[in-house]
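Re: that chain you flagged

S.,

Sorry for the slow reply, it's been a week of failed gels. I finally had a moment to sit down with the sequence you sent. For the record, here it is as I used it:
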Amino acid sequence: MPPDSTAPNSKTSGPRASLLVVGGGIAGASVCFFAARRGWAVTLIDADQGRASEVPTALLNPVRGQSGHTDARALAGLHLGWALIRELGGRGHRVAHGQTGVLRPLANDAARAKFETNLPPGLAHQWLAPADSPFNLAPGWPHLLFLPQGGWVAAGALVAALVTVSGAEVRRARAASWDARSATLEDGEVLHADAVVWCGGSVGASWGGASWGGGSGSDPGGFSHRAGSLLLLEGAAAPLPVSAGVYLAPATFSNGQRGGVLGATFEAPTSGYQAGGPPLKSLHWLFSRAAALSADLSPAVTGIWTGSRLSGERTGPQPGGWWALAGLGSKGFLLGPLLARELVGQLGGQLGKRLDSQMDSAPADLPAEHALSSLDG
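Prediction finished late last night. Pasting the structure tokens below so you have them in one place:
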């Protein structure tokens, strides 16, 4: 399949599979989208609380960190991300974005040497001199790495469009527990399906502790939580994302107004979700790094956004029989759709065998729909 193809190989004949998706951020929304592409009936359980995927602007940046190391899946994720945005636009769901490229200023020759060593050969890039900078760069950055395949996207709009196009039934509720074939809501209602995929974020990771093998309210092991904040600006301080420790990027806010963002503070990782805004020292750090990056910080601050990211990637079948796609951290928008497509493909193979087996064992005069619903127990 071409890396920018959004459509998995669909099985359109036979009984219709049903799927419960717990968590409606970029991972859960992507699972809904690709499951619906296979003709599945999808129900999304989402409490609409504290989603990191509601960040005003998400960067599609293939190179993370300060050394030029690139996730082996980054290019495929990048191609798929832009393909999804184009397809959604073709369906009448325009998502604000800019395939503008990403600029990575580097402070010295040693940093450039690291990047040159670690950048993958298939990644398009260009080295620029400071005089060629597309924005008002502060002094002290002798090397500029331009990544033309990167850019930015209005994160919340992308998540909403994926869910809408999927046609998923959305239940605004909290899942108290779940297993391989059902999820119990906080009010005691039990929903059944052929499979369950958990895509919770930092807030939801401590919900349903029993599903992780712990007690009520327990947090699954292997995850870490990291709060961060960014400032909303009345205008864009740069025409494209510029990233060097902090980042400046254009933005289109939920009210349709255009502006920019300056992000992000990063608090110390914790073992559980912690609410609250950033301490003053974090904002001081953010402003000082921004001043070192840009010679023009004239746009006014109009607000602040704070969220918490869940890290510790977990994807695929879990010991309890349910599936997970969670813990992508800062790579959620880069890798979430790609990993969701892969997970749905794997899950489809498993469900196909199960449904075929049920069909083979059903009485000859039993309708296919009855054979499918019998799987709900």
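What I noticed first: The longest strand covers residues 301-317.

Talk soon,
D.
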